[in-house]
């Protein structure tokens, strides 16, 4: 291979790996390889005005493409600005390759401007963080970064690129990254043991996370839930692992307090965990999560998730898709006709309960129709106007139940929910999803508080004419904090009282429509029910980016 600067070789490597977009915010120490991008028209640099928006864009793109996304941050200050959203990406298992520039190896002793221990900064929020110290290993390190990011459990990887290393010569060949085949099949005797442990259950429980989605095991999960007659509860669930309308799907376990989750988990007499760990709350229960004597089986491609916090009776390091169908078949063969009858009966009961709850909610909406505008009003009309294959990016948080009662997440790849706890992914995440699927309608939901973390992403939408629709659910508060502190009062025996004034966002009021227009994105404010339908029609017909400031819950 002919020798050339490592900054050129790096871009050749991205070309070999089929990279079409690089998300970033440029800085001086990266200017060498950014200048070379003009010679690589296959790679489009998508500029964002703040690093949290850069990471959010890459996160949405990676989730929508199911491939590693490349992003560039600027030295210690840029990485620092992106840390919160990188935490989101790590907890959400987004495969990102994060490139961070620095001035050079020659300046390590100088403690120069913007210098920092970048690897140490990134280690808590990445799967792997490293620094290239020899130009002859630049491509080797980058290929490893792509491989690590795209190996379960997926997640962000950071590579520090000193400017003087990139300016030096390398003759490394640019060849495609070698990815791993992870469809590991459990041994037949392991499947039989799992079925033996689970077959006697009368109150079976499936605790499910996004490992099911990543392996494409939705059909196998549904089959297992139906054969076993098991409730399916989500934990670390932000993709469509089972259609929301499936009778076995009971919702997501509590994200705040383990005591809430334990009311579900401790009631089961057998538990199968798949594609997640037990359990990802903010204040998890330390004991009493599972009933005494209840067998617990855990299937995952992430060895670290199995028995991470609580013992299990059987841990299976295998692909969920290759495992769940086999366990379902083994259970099907073991269950008696009476057990099959009771399993089917449970599913019928849950289906009837869901239908009744939906009817009750619709009737409640009708009674409240004369009152303030609700998220459910908007969701109902949006469902009527959206094309069938639209992609929805959900950071609506407290408004999500009302919105998605009418837009149930049933199809994999058409619904992405925020995960990880870092606010601000709704707008840039939707932009990333739209770049990944330019021919589809994409709608991103966020809140008034969350939107202000990355509102700069609207400028990126306008600059590149990325035609996503954005909905800011504007209730004038950090409403999730209202809900969380109310739960906290209950756990501490504190009488309910006025919510803290600092949760209020109305002094001064933010004019989101005007702010959006100032960043180049047309917008309307909707605060009455009769404004909903025309606003949605205008947004969907615009052909470009469009924002709706949806005033609800005031």
UniProtKB/TrEMBL annotation:
<dbReference type="InterPro" id="IPR045229">
    <property type="entry name" value="TPP_enz"/>
</dbReference>
<protein>
    <submittedName>
        <fullName>Thiamine pyrophosphate-binding protein</fullName>
    </submittedName>
</protein>
<dbReference type="Pfam" id="PF02776">
    <property type="entry name" value="TPP_enzyme_N"/>
</dbReference>
<feature type="domain" description="Thiamine pyrophosphate enzyme TPP-binding">
    <location>
        <begin position="403"/>
        <end position="549"/>
    </location>
</feature>
<dbReference type="InterPro" id="IPR000399">
    <property type="entry name" value="TPP-bd_CS"/>
</dbReference>
<dbReference type="InterPro" id="IPR011766">
    <property type="entry name" value="TPP_enzyme_TPP-bd"/>
</dbReference>
<dbReference type="Pfam" id="PF02775">
    <property type="entry name" value="TPP_enzyme_C"/>
</dbReference>
<feature type="domain" description="Thiamine pyrophosphate enzyme N-terminal TPP-binding">
    <location>
        <begin position="9"/>
        <end position="114"/>
    </location>
</feature>
<dbReference type="InterPro" id="IPR012000">
    <property type="entry name" value="Thiamin_PyroP_enz_cen_dom"/>
</dbReference>
<keyword id="KW-0786">Thiamine pyrophosphate</keyword>
<comment type="similarity">
    <text>Belongs to the TPP enzyme family.</text>
</comment>
<dbReference type="InterPro" id="IPR012001">
    <property type="entry name" value="Thiamin_PyroP_enz_TPP-bd_dom"/>
</dbReference>
<dbReference type="Pfam" id="PF00205">
    <property type="entry name" value="TPP_enzyme_M"/>
</dbReference>
<dbReference type="InterPro" id="IPR029035">
    <property type="entry name" value="DHS-like_NAD/FAD-binding_dom"/>
</dbReference>
<feature type="domain" description="Thiamine pyrophosphate enzyme central">
    <location>
        <begin position="191"/>
        <end position="325"/>
    </location>
</feature>
<dbReference type="InterPro" id="IPR029061">
    <property type="entry name" value="THDP-binding"/>
</dbReference>
């Amino acid at each position: 291979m002919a020798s050339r600067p490592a900054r050129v070789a790096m871009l050749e490597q991205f070309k070999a790996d089929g990279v079409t977009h690089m998300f970033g915010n440029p800085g001086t120490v990266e200017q060498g390889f950014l200048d070379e991008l003009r010679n690589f028209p296959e790679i489009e640099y998508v500029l964002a005005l703040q690093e949290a928006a850069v990471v959010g864009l890459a996160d949405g793109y990676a989730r929508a493409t199911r491939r590693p996304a490349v992003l560039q941050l600027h030295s210690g200050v840029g990485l620092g600005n992106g840390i919160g959203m990188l935490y989101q990406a790590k907890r959400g298992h987004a495969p990102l390759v994060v490139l961070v520039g620095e001035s050079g190896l020659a300046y390590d002793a100088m403690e120069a401007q913007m210098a920092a221990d970048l690897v140490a900064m990134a280690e808590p929020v990445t799967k792997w963080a490293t620094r290239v110290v020899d130009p002859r290993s630049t491509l080797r390190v980058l290929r490893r970064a792509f491989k690590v990011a795209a190996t379960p459990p997926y997640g962000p990887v950071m590579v520090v690129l000193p400017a003087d290393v990139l300016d030096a010569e390398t003759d490394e060949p640019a060849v495609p990254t070698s990815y791993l085949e992870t469809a590991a099949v459990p041994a037949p005797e392991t499947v039989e043991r799992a079925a033996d442990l689970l077959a006697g259950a009368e109150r079976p429980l499936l605790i499910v996370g996004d490992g099911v989605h990543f392996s494409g095991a939705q059909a196998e999960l549904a089959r297992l839930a139906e054969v076993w007659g098991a409730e399916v509860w989500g934990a670390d669930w932000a993709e469509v692992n089972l259609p929301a309308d499936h009778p076995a799907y009971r919702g997501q376990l509590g994200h705040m307090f383990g005591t809430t989750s334990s009311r579900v988990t401790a009631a089961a007499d057998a538990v199968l965990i798949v594609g997640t760990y037990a359990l990802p709350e903010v204040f998890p229960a330390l004991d009493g999560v599972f009933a005494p004597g209840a067998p617990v089986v855990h299937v995952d491609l992430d060895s670290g998730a199995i028995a991470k916090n609580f013992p299990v009776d059987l841990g299976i390091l295998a692909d969920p898709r290759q495992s769940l169908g086999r366990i379902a078949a083994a259970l099907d063969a073991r269950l008696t006709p009476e057990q099959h009858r009771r399993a089917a009966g449970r599913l019928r009961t849950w289906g009837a309960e869901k239908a009744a709850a939906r009817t009750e909610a619709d009737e409640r909406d009708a009674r409240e129709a004369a009152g303030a505008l609700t998220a459910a009003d908007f969701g109902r009309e949006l469902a009527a106007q959206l094309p069938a294959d639209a992609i929805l990016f959900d950071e609506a948080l407290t408004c999500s139940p009302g919105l998605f009662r009418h837009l149930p997440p049933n199809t994999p790849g058409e619904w992405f929910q925020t995960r990880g706890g870092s606010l601000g992914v709704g707008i840039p995440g939707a932009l990333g999803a739209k770049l990944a699927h330019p021919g589809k309608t994409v709608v991103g939901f966020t809140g008034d508080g969350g939107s202000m973390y990355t509102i700069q992403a609207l400028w990126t939408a306008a600059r590149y004419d990325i035609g996503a629709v954005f909905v800011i659910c504007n209730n004038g508060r950090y409403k999730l904090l209202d809900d969380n502190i109310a739960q906290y009062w209950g756990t501490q025996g504190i009488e309910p009282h006025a919510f803290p004034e600092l949760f209020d966002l109305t002094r001064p009021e933010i004019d989101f429509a005007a702010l959006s227009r100032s960043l180049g994105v047309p917008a309307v404010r909707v605060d009455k029910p009769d404004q909903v339908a025309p606003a949605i029609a205008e947004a969907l017909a615009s052909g470009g980016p469009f924002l709706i400031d949806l005033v609800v819950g005031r």
